[in-house]
Amino acid sequence: MTRKNLPVLILFITSFAYLYWFAAGIFFYQEQKSLFIFSYEYLAKHLVKPGGLLKYLAGFLTQGYLSDLYGAFINSLIIALLAILLRSVAERLSGSRSFTMPLAFLIPLGLMICQSNYHFNILHSLGFLLAAVLFLISLNLTRKTFHVILIFLFPVFYFMMGTYSLIYLCTYLIHSILYQNNRYGRIFTLLQIFISIVTLVLFYKLFLYQPFSVITGYPLISNEYGRANGLLYGVTVLFVLLPGLIKISDLPGSEKHATAKSTVIAACLYGISIIVLVRQYDPVFEGIMRTEKRYCSGKFDEIIVHHEKYPSSNIIEQFYYNLSLSEKGKLCDRMFFGCQDAGPMSLSLGGNREQASRTMHYYYAVGLVNEARHLAFELMVINGCTPENLKMLIKTELINGNFRVAERYLNILKKTLGYRSEAGRLGKMLENTELVNTDDELGEKRKLMPKDDFFIHTEDAMNIDLLVRSNPANRKAFEYKMARLLLEKDILEIAEESVKMADMGYTTIPRHIEEAIVAFASYKKALPDLAGLVLSAGTNARFLNYVRSVNSFAGDRAAIKKSLNRAEKDTFWYYLQFGQIRGDFTRSRPVDRNVY
Q1: Integer distance in angstroms from the first to the last C-alpha of the chain?
Q2: pLDDT in tens, 358-407
Q3: What angle do CA 573, 579, 584 make, to 5 degrees?
Q4: Cα–Cα nearest to 122, from 31, 188, 241, 207
Q5: Which of 28, 217, 542, 546 could in theory staple to 221 by disulfide, Cβ–Cβ 3.0 to 4.6 A?
Q6: What DSSP line would sit under 144-160, residue for residue?
Q7: Between these two residues, 182 and 13, which has the higher pLDDT value?
Q8: DSSP annotation string for 69-85
Q9: Cα 584 to the chain's mean position, in Å?
Q10: Which residues touch 593 (CB under 8 Å, ≥6 apart)?
């Protein structure tokens, strides 16, 4: 390792460490936004816009984001390669003057900061990398013939790179004005401008038939996958002006103490970048993405353990915690072991349509399979094929016995890289339809489905009531109903509903429902009708201990909260007495106004 390459190595390590250990949720977010399909039809969609092939390449790389290690490595590698290329550009233009070296790292540092924005796509990093490659090639061409060939290849570069070919063009023109003030330089510059104008006109009028904003702005400005931030536009300006900045750094006298100046400036730029990264780090978004990734991977136990060990006040994380408990059959046994300050809204996100990609998992979990399919189809129409939408459509069609429809969706999933094995597993059910009934997941969901049809309402509490009435054997729906009553602190309604548990096959009463019944008995001085079920002696003993602990502080709420142990806080009694439901999550406001 030479001293010359040390800054590049530091840049790579910094980017990798940040992306892998602090911002890996970005990779899951971006991977879930689209689905890369190995088919001619998918490729053809990328051939109708300039820069479509660059987006296709970005999509190919993005499919590997299922691995956080891969995502951090590939993005950091591109940043490091860009730094090496721009350093070569600076050396070529300045004659290896030390003072120009920090300029080569301005753009890579800017892109490293851009990567912390979850809307920033690897496409942008690739675009700048290819633009730097073209610019460096144009600087190193000594034969005029090759230079002319490069100029006449601009339409090809434009078709592949879109806006980023125009960024290269602007950088090249500024270089020509500043560094090639001779007859051949002026001829090549005029020829390049002429070819570029002809290219834009032909693609606009004859080839692509796209709006002019797309012809000139795609994929940097005019795009359909997200938005670029102001910092990215700033990086773009720096790239275009790079030849001019290097020219200024070469003014007489700038070489005095150049090495010392270069080191100080580079250290300052690096330090500022680290500070900006730290300030831009969003633990809320990161927590949501990591939890959602675990849920989509079926790691329900990990979500439960993590939320109980590191309680989160974020409603989305509480939603996935409750959903994971339900999938493991523990909702009314453990829900108060984790944070529940979002109240009933954390059970289903209030049926919020803005959260359709998440609420479809709720409907699927409780047995409203057709509503989950409906939401998944709507999302596919709006956003195109995404991994979770497509998998949900396949599973719900298999559950409903619509095997020919499921086969069409499976044929799409089979053409992917990361989900091919999942498609193979589900595809076996087309050959042997009885496998649906014996499958641990699909067979159970089929049993949870309503026996009678009913209309889905906007109020999820009403949907659960209808589902329990239609399929009394659906314990998941019943426990969701009881969980809502627990979070609403409605111990009177809980006591009335508890009589149904014996007919549903319960032999023991779930822990938190039992705690609510004990609280009811303490209030009413009588037990409700439990149809033969009995309370455990341990629950009565725990209640007496809890009351004794609370009463020992003579109503000092602060002292009580501070002194109660974990076992006493992980109860419905503690939630009933001290649980505060936040007011910012109401039915009239979006669930995720501040949490993506």
Answers
A1: 43
A2: 999 999 999 999 999 999 999 999 989 999 999 999 999 999 999 999 99
A3: 155
A4: 31
A5: 217
A6: HHHHHHHHHTHHHHHHH
A7: 13
A8: HHHHHHHHHHHHHHHHH
A9: 23
A10: 584
